[in-house]
Amino acid sequence: MFDAFTRPASGEAWTHIADVSDFLAVRSEPSARRGRQVLRLLPGASMTLSDCGDPTTVGSTAGRWCRATVPVYLGWVFGAFLSEVDA
Questions:
Q1: Tens place of pLDDT for every residue, the chain, 87 residues?
Q2: What is the CA radius of gyration of the chain?
Q3: Spatial CA neighbour of 47 closest among 67, 32, 22, 23
Q4: What's the CA dihedral at 43, 71, 75, 17 to 10 degrees?
Q5: Residue 40 phi, psi dihedral angles, 5° rounding
Q6: CA distances from 12 to 22, 37, 49, 59 (A)
Q7: Is the Cβ–Cβ distance between 43 and 79 less than 8 Å?
Q8: Please, what are the domains in the chain?
Q9: Distance of alpha carbon 7 from alpha carbon 41, whole angstroms
Q10: Is the dihedral of CA 33, 62, 83, 54 positive or negative?
Q11: Cα–Cα distance, 8 to 86 (Å, whole number)
């Protein structure tokens, strides 16, 4: 499971975990306040992460903002809601 202390290697495959939210917002920049929501991913959606930033919090949840590549878009996701895909 992704946490605030884990920095995934660039290019690792991750997935949105279902028990946290009904969707994962992909944002135009790494900020819940400034980043415009550009896409919603359903639980189980896969993505490749890169450029993960330093630990931060969104509300009371700790994690890192990471650039996410999904089949239709390149944007930013908050890693606290992700789990690594088993190889």
A1: 455 555 666 666 666 554 455 788 899 999 999 999 998 888 777 788 888 888 899 888 888 898 988 877 888 888 777 777 665
A2: 11
A3: 67
A4: 20
A5: -115, 125
A6: 23, 23, 6, 26
A7: no
A8: 13-84 (2.30.30.40)
A9: 21
A10: positive
A11: 14
Are 63 and 51 in contact, with CB atoms under 8 Å apart? Answer: no
Query: Rounded to whole angstroms, how far apart are CA atoms 41 and 81?
Result: 11
Locate tokens 């994690």: which residue? 63
The position carrying tokens 């359903």 is: 42
46-50 and 56-58 as β-strands: parallel, antiparallel, unpaired? unpaired
> Quick one: tokens of 59?
């509300």
Q: CA–CA separation, 40 vs 62, rounded Å? A: 20
